[in-house]
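sry for the spam today, last one i promise. struct tokens for design, 342 residues
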């Protein structure tokens, strides 16, 4: 008997990134899942009973239900028991570690889990593969969002909660800690990003990329708010609990403000250092399509999985095997996102 066609379920399908993914995958008829009644399926990603009721064997779940910093592995554990595969757009180091702790169980179950299939960490891994860097020593990333299009309360909450907190990064070949948004770095990237000042932000890259490239000595992510005056506010909040609390209470208003005066152009910048090829710089840039950059790898992977063309195997899939680098760059180009390298 032929295996039934899997359902595609977008968890967090009513949120910003979930809606973006649903629009890009509309031909596959995704089911939008959320705790809210307006969804096609009412599923709570943190409620095991809700997950057991809503999911079926062979379902494919695109998990966009952030913020992942506060998520448990309830979904992954339900997928193990039911027999579902999961593609998520996680950017949280903590969540990545929790999923990675289940790697043996995932591998035994024969399902697929593509965690961090987003701008963190799949994008960096894909660019490293595309450039043919075999012994990378350093990966420094910069997020400069096109805030006029992408500012939303979920992403803002993730940023605010890192301010003034101890964050982890890969430094001197091991996980170290530093103060979030207190340490800055200047990037000189391909135009139109150009010269940018970013501030330290915790990222799953610091955990996931060294699992693929043990030669790495440093992996760190930095953020430029890309809104006039925002970096100054965030730097002050990194030293003031009272200001952080105020920012967290005004996320909706802050997101509207950022959309009103923020930049139309943004994306990701990377500075790679390789033992053989020296320093290379890349910029992944978008304007109207900037909101598609974080979900682009997941959308491509989901499409390959639904069409039976995924070549990455089963089990826990490392970030360099989640998508083919050339296919990702072509997909980004079709969406109006350019990739500049030098």
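last one done:
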């Amino acid at each position: 008997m032929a295996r039934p066609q899997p359902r595609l379920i977008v968890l967090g399908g009513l949120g910003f990134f979930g809606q973006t993914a649903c629009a890009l995958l509309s031909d596959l008829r995704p089911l939008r899942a959320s705790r809210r009644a307006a969804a096609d399926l009412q599923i709570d990603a943190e409620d095991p009973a809700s997950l057991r009721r809503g999911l079926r064997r062979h379902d494919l779940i695109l998990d966009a239900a952030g913020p992942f910093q506060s998520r448990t592995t309830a979904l992954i554990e339900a997928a193990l028991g039911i027999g579902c595969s999961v593609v998520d757009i996680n950017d949280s180091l903590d969540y990545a570690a929790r999923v990675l702790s289940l790697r043996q169980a995932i591998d035994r179950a024969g399902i697929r889990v593509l965690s961090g299939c987003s701008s963190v960490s799949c994008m960096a891994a894909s660019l490293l593969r595309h450039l043919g860097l075999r012994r990378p020593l350093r990966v420094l990333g910069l997020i400069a969002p096109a805030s006029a299009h992408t500012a939303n309360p979920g992403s803002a909450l993730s940023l605010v909660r890192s301010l003034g907190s101890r964050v982890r990064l890969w430094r001197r070949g091991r996980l170290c800690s530093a103060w979030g948004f207190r340490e800055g770095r200047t990037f000189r990237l391909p135009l139109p990003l150009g010269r940018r000042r970013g501030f330290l932000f915790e990222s799953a890259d610091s955990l996931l990329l060294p699992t693929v490239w043990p030669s790495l000595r440093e992996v760190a992510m930095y953020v430029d708010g890309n809104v006039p005056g925002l970096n100054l506010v965030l730097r002050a909040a990194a030293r003031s609990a009272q200001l952080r609390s105020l920012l967290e209470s005004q996320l909706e208003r802050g997101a509207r403000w950022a959309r009103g005066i923020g930049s139309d152009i943004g994306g990701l910048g990377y500075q790679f250092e390789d033992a053989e090829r020296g320093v290379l710089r890349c910029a992944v840039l978008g304007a109207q399509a900037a909101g598609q950059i974080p979900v682009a790898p997941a959308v491509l992977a989901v499409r390959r999985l639904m069409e039976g063309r995924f070549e990455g195997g089963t089990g826990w899939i490392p970030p360099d095997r989640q998508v083919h680098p050339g296919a990702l760059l072509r997909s980004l180009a079709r969406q109006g996102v350019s990739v500049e390298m030098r």
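Residues 311 and 328 are 14 Å apart (CA to CA). ok im logging off now
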